[in-house]
């Protein structure tokens, strides 16, 4: 390359969602191929991208999140990227339901070999503070529990209410997405 057009070097520090997104958009810009620019992403973890906060997050993408100014750009962009790059297969992109569940826990079966607490002492996770001990437990869950919420026992459910309409909440696998 001639001295008239020196190679520009951009170094991005951190392979989390911000660093990886910055590298992606720099490299996918229409002028990048002819720009003489080299982009280097540095990540401290020997295990690769998204080992910090990005790798531990739940991958929630929601139209109802905040700040709205960011959401109004990021949610449709997540949809576009998933469609353009086969996000369903590559990073687990999927629309999900989101709701508020209220209910009771139950003790694990004795034969599971799992204990809770010091010395394997089992403890109930049911919250009973302030409840009248004579109040009978509800045996039927109210309608509204989503059909695909199969890991929740209906008989332990007191209430469920959706937090957003269909298509307003999605999820990605953070490590796969940043990789």
Automatic annotation (TrEMBL):
InterPro entries: FAD-dep_OxRdtase (IPR006076), FAD/NAD-bd_sf (IPR036188)
Domain named FAD dependent oxidoreductase: residues: 10-107
Pfam families referenced in this protein's UniProt entry, alphabetically: DAO
GO CC terms of this entry: cytosol; late endosome
Gene Ontology BP annotations: retrograde transport, endosome to Golgi
Region annotation (Disordered) ranges: 106-146
UniProt xrefs under Gene3D superfamilies: FAD/NAD(P)-binding domain
Protein name listed in UniProt: FAD dependent oxidoreductase domain-containing protein
């Amino acid at each position: 390359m001639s001295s008239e057009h020196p190679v520009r070097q951009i170094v991005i520090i951190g392979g989390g969602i911000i660093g990886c997104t910055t590298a992606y958009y720099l490299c996918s810009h229409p002028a990048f191929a002819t720009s003489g620019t080299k982009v280097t992403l540095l990540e401290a973890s020997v295990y690769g991208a998204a080992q910090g906060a990005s790798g531990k997050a739940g991958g929630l993408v929601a139209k109802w999140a905040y700040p709205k100014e960011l959401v109004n750009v990021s949610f449709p962009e997540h949809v576009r990227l998933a469609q353009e790059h086969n996000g369903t297969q590559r990073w687990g992109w999927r629309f999900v339901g989101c709701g508020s569940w209220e209910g009771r826990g139950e003790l694990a079966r004795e034969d599971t070999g799992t204990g809770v607490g010091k010395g394997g002492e089992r403890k109930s996770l049911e919250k009973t503070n302030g409840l009248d001990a004579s109040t009978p437990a509800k045996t039927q869950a109210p309608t509204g529990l989503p059909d695909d919420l199969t890991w929740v026992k209906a008989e332990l459910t007191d209430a469920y209410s959706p937090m957003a309409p269909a298509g307003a909440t999605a999820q990605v696998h953070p490590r796969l997405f940043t990789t």
